[in-house]
Amino acid sequence: MPQAPTTHSSRTNREESLRQVGAGLQNLLEKTRAEYVGIRRDAKDQIKEATKVTEPDKGNAIALPEVNMRRERLLRNQIVAIEAAIEKFKKFKAGGALFGICEECGEDISIRRLTHSPAVRLCCDCQAEMEENEKRGMR
Ligand SMILES: [Zn+2]
To answer: From the CA of 113, how far away is ligand 1's center (Å)?
Structure first.
Protein backbone atom coordinates (compact mmCIF):
# COMPACT_ATOMS: atom_id res chain seq x y z
CA MET A 1 0.00 0.00 0.00
CA PRO A 2 1.52 3.35 -1.02
CA GLN A 3 1.48 5.95 1.71
CA ALA A 4 0.13 9.43 1.09
CA PRO A 5 2.94 11.98 1.16
CA THR A 6 2.82 13.91 4.43
CA THR A 7 2.87 17.28 2.66
CA HIS A 8 -0.49 16.49 1.13
CA SER A 9 -2.07 15.04 4.25
CA SER A 10 -4.07 18.13 5.23
CA ARG A 11 -5.48 18.34 1.68
CA THR A 12 -6.35 14.66 1.82
CA ASN A 13 -8.01 15.09 5.20
CA ARG A 14 -10.03 17.96 3.87
CA GLU A 15 -11.10 15.97 0.84
CA GLU A 16 -12.11 13.12 3.09
CA SER A 17 -14.17 15.47 5.26
CA LEU A 18 -15.77 17.07 2.21
CA ARG A 19 -16.81 13.66 1.00
CA GLN A 20 -18.48 13.01 4.35
CA VAL A 21 -20.28 16.34 4.21
CA GLY A 22 -21.37 15.68 0.63
CA ALA A 23 -22.59 12.19 1.43
CA GLY A 24 -25.08 13.67 3.91
CA LEU A 25 -26.59 16.09 1.39
CA GLN A 26 -29.11 13.71 -0.15
CA ASN A 27 -30.45 12.85 3.27
CA LEU A 28 -30.74 16.50 4.19
CA LEU A 29 -32.57 17.21 0.94
CA GLU A 30 -35.11 14.48 1.61
CA LYS A 31 -35.67 15.67 5.18
CA THR A 32 -36.12 19.29 4.07
CA ARG A 33 -38.47 18.26 1.26
CA ALA A 34 -40.56 16.20 3.69
CA GLU A 35 -40.88 19.16 6.03
CA TYR A 36 -41.78 21.42 3.11
CA VAL A 37 -44.52 19.06 1.92
CA GLY A 38 -45.81 18.78 5.50
CA ILE A 39 -46.01 22.54 5.90
CA ARG A 40 -47.84 22.96 2.62
CA ARG A 41 -50.38 20.36 3.71
CA ASP A 42 -50.79 22.00 7.14
CA ALA A 43 -51.22 25.40 5.52
CA LYS A 44 -53.96 24.08 3.27
CA ASP A 45 -55.79 22.58 6.25
CA GLN A 46 -55.47 25.81 8.17
CA ILE A 47 -56.77 27.87 5.29
CA LYS A 48 -59.72 25.50 5.08
CA GLU A 49 -60.28 25.94 8.82
CA ALA A 50 -59.93 29.70 8.55
CA THR A 51 -62.51 30.01 5.82
CA LYS A 52 -64.93 27.95 7.93
CA VAL A 53 -64.78 30.53 10.72
CA THR A 54 -67.57 33.03 10.45
CA GLU A 55 -66.98 34.53 13.91
CA PRO A 56 -65.35 37.97 14.33
CA ASP A 57 -61.99 36.44 15.43
CA LYS A 58 -61.28 35.55 11.82
CA GLY A 59 -58.09 37.61 11.85
CA ASN A 60 -56.42 35.21 14.24
CA ALA A 61 -57.26 32.16 12.16
CA ILE A 62 -55.90 33.73 9.00
CA ALA A 63 -52.65 34.76 10.67
CA LEU A 64 -51.65 31.11 11.11
CA PRO A 65 -50.91 30.25 7.49
CA GLU A 66 -48.77 33.40 7.22
CA VAL A 67 -46.32 31.95 9.72
CA ASN A 68 -46.22 28.85 7.58
CA MET A 69 -45.64 30.91 4.46
CA ARG A 70 -42.48 32.34 5.97
CA ARG A 71 -41.27 28.89 6.99
CA GLU A 72 -42.27 27.58 3.58
CA ARG A 73 -40.22 30.25 1.82
CA LEU A 74 -37.24 29.47 4.05
CA LEU A 75 -37.51 25.76 3.31
CA ARG A 76 -37.89 26.38 -0.40
CA ASN A 77 -34.68 28.43 -0.40
CA GLN A 78 -32.97 25.68 1.56
CA ILE A 79 -34.05 23.04 -0.95
CA VAL A 80 -32.65 25.11 -3.82
CA ALA A 81 -29.38 25.57 -1.92
CA ILE A 82 -29.07 21.86 -1.12
CA GLU A 83 -29.77 20.91 -4.73
CA ALA A 84 -27.07 23.32 -5.87
CA ALA A 85 -24.67 21.82 -3.30
CA ILE A 86 -25.43 18.31 -4.55
CA GLU A 87 -24.58 19.43 -8.10
CA LYS A 88 -21.32 20.91 -6.87
CA PHE A 89 -20.52 17.78 -4.95
CA LYS A 90 -21.05 15.69 -8.10
CA LYS A 91 -18.52 17.88 -9.93
CA PHE A 92 -16.18 17.63 -6.96
CA LYS A 93 -16.33 13.83 -7.07
CA ALA A 94 -15.66 13.96 -10.82
CA GLY A 95 -12.42 15.84 -10.17
CA GLY A 96 -13.53 19.48 -10.12
CA ALA A 97 -12.71 21.11 -6.79
CA LEU A 98 -15.68 23.44 -6.48
CA PHE A 99 -17.27 21.94 -3.40
CA GLY A 100 -16.56 23.56 -0.04
CA ILE A 101 -15.17 26.73 -1.58
CA CYS A 102 -16.57 30.20 -0.97
CA GLU A 103 -18.38 31.51 -4.07
CA GLU A 104 -17.37 35.03 -3.21
CA CYS A 105 -13.66 34.93 -2.35
CA GLY A 106 -12.68 31.41 -3.45
CA GLU A 107 -11.26 30.46 -0.03
CA ASP A 108 -11.87 27.09 1.58
CA ILE A 109 -14.96 27.03 3.76
CA SER A 110 -14.12 25.46 7.12
CA ILE A 111 -15.18 21.85 7.63
CA ARG A 112 -16.85 22.83 10.88
CA ARG A 113 -19.07 25.30 9.05
CA LEU A 114 -19.84 22.78 6.30
CA THR A 115 -20.68 20.07 8.79
CA HIS A 116 -23.15 22.40 10.46
CA SER A 117 -24.71 23.59 7.18
CA PRO A 118 -23.59 21.50 4.20
CA ALA A 119 -25.35 23.66 1.61
CA VAL A 120 -23.59 26.86 2.66
CA ARG A 121 -22.15 28.85 -0.28
CA LEU A 122 -20.01 31.45 1.44
CA CYS A 123 -17.26 31.47 4.03
CA CYS A 124 -17.91 33.07 7.43
CA ASP A 125 -16.40 36.42 6.44
CA CYS A 126 -18.28 36.76 3.16
CA GLN A 127 -21.54 35.65 4.78
CA ALA A 128 -21.17 38.28 7.48
CA GLU A 129 -20.38 40.90 4.87
CA MET A 130 -23.38 39.92 2.75
CA GLU A 131 -25.73 40.06 5.74
CA GLU A 132 -24.33 43.44 6.64
CA ASN A 133 -25.01 44.68 3.10
CA GLU A 134 -28.51 43.23 3.10
CA LYS A 135 -29.29 44.96 6.37
CA ARG A 136 -28.05 48.23 4.93
CA GLY A 137 -29.99 47.69 1.70
CA MET A 138 -33.22 47.16 3.59
CA ARG A 139 -33.16 50.58 5.17
ZN1 LIG B 1 -15.47 34.13 1.25
So the answer is: 12
Whether 1 is covered by a domain: the verdict is no
Q: How far is the CA of 123 from the centre of ligand 1 (A)?
A: 4
- Domain of 28: which CATH number? 1.20.120.910
In a domain, 107, yes or no: yes
Q: Could you tell me the residue range of the domain that residue 41 belongs to? A: 6-138
**Number of domains making up the chain:** 1
- For residue 50, the model assigns a pLDDT of 72
pLDDT digits (tens, 9 = 90+) for 67-81: 778 889 999 999 999
From the CA of 134, how far away is ligand 1's center (Å)? 16
Distance 130 CA to ligand 1 centre (A): 10
Assign residue 100 a region: left if phi > 0, alpha if psi is -120 to 50, beta otherwise?
left
- Decide: pTM greater than 0.70: yes
| Residue 101, phi then psi, degrees to nearest 5 | -115, 135
